[in-house]
Design brief:
This protein is of the alpha+beta class. It has two domains: 101 residues, Immunoglobulin-like, CATH 2.60.40; 100 residues, Serine Threonine Protein Phosphatase 5, Tetratricopeptide repeat. It is built from eight helices and eleven strands. Strands 2-11-10-5-8-7 form a six-stranded mixed β-sheet, with no helix packed on it. It is elongated, with a radius of gyration of 35 Å.
Length: 287
């Protein structure tokens, strides 16, 4: 009778260490199992996203904000960038660089101040695709927006007193009337407001940066916009992009010259007060 009892006591003593070890381990596994499941579910839920307005309204010859938001930051691989495709011809972004007609690549850190510069002769809608792209070319997220540019406004204001001369006007009256040429336009063209001059200088600086990268088309667009604001230096810079004598820089090789366009913008620069434009006009044989 005593022997079975001793056997039971020995068996219980052997089981106790196993129970002491298994109990906490099992409890820990039970506690950790749902946590791991939650972490996996959260990891699967975090995906990159990109946001842009469904429709963007603009007018020709303007610089407008082009807001793009991406996130969350932890879900975006390093060195990713935003690709914009489908912009109107000759339109340019103020950040990033051109990768093709109507296509731009923009670093993520430049999105906060991103703007689009629209040329004068632009009108109608443009379907723009905005993509978040990884460094290996994989598209992480993509959205579409419509850039609606209003048609260029044409002045319907009649110029009756000057244009159609009255039949009873004498020959002395038209002769004494100032002609609408460069001398008459020059004083008003030079009178640039401080705000417009500051804006024009920013456009000129950005155009010079684009030109230094060999991006002539967006640079010309920015120069033209600055010249329209009355900045003589911008008209000079724009004329130089068509002047064969000014296209000898390494990053401008292969750019076709156009003497007539160079002359036109040098003449505009002269009207705006750039005295050095006269020298270049003489070199072109225009004076």
């Amino acid at each position: 009778m005593r022997e079975p009892r001793l056997i039971r006591e020995r068996w219980q003593r052997r089981r106790q260490p196993f129970q002491v070890w298994v109990g906490p381990v099992a409890a820990t596994m039970v506690m950790l199992a749902p946590v791991g499941g939650v972490d996996r579910a959260c990891a699967q839920a975090v995906v990159p996203s990109i946001e842009v307005a469904n429709t963007i309204l603009a007018e020709p010859a303007t610089v407008i904000p082009f807001p793009i938001r991406v996130g969350p930051a932890r879900a975006i691989p390093r060195n990713s960038f935003v690709r914009v495709r489908g912009l109107p011809p000759m339109a340019a972004l103020t950040e990033g660089y051109s990768i093709g007609p109507g296509s731009w690549a923009v670093p993520l850190q430049a999105l906060t101040d991103l703007k689009v510069t629209l040329p004068v002769a632009t009108g109608g809608p443009a379907n723009v695709t905005v993509s978040l792209v990884a460094v290996d070319g994989k598209v992480l997220a993509e959205v579409r927006t419509t850039l609606v540019v209003s048609s260029p406004l044409r002045s319907t204001r009649p110029p009756p007193p000057e244009a159609p001369a009255p039949p009873f006007a004498t020959g002395a009256q038209p002769a004494g009337r100032p002609e609408p040429g460069p001398p008459a336009a020059s004083p008003s063209a030079v009178a640039v407001t401080p705000a417009d001059r500051e804006r024009a200088l920013q456009l000129l600086k950005k155009g010079e940066e684009q030109l230094a990268q060999g991006l002539v088309a967006p640079a010309r667009l920015l120069f033209e916009r600055a010249a329209d604001l009355g900045l003589a230096e911008a008209a000079m810079a724009l004329g130089a992009t068509y002047d064969a004598a000014e296209l000898d820089k390494p990053y401008l090789r292969g750019i076709g010259a156009d003497a007539s366009k160079a002359q036109r913008w040098y003449e505009r620069a002269l009207e705006l007060g750039a005295g050095e434009a006269d020298v270049r006009l003489r070199r072109l044989g225009a004076k």
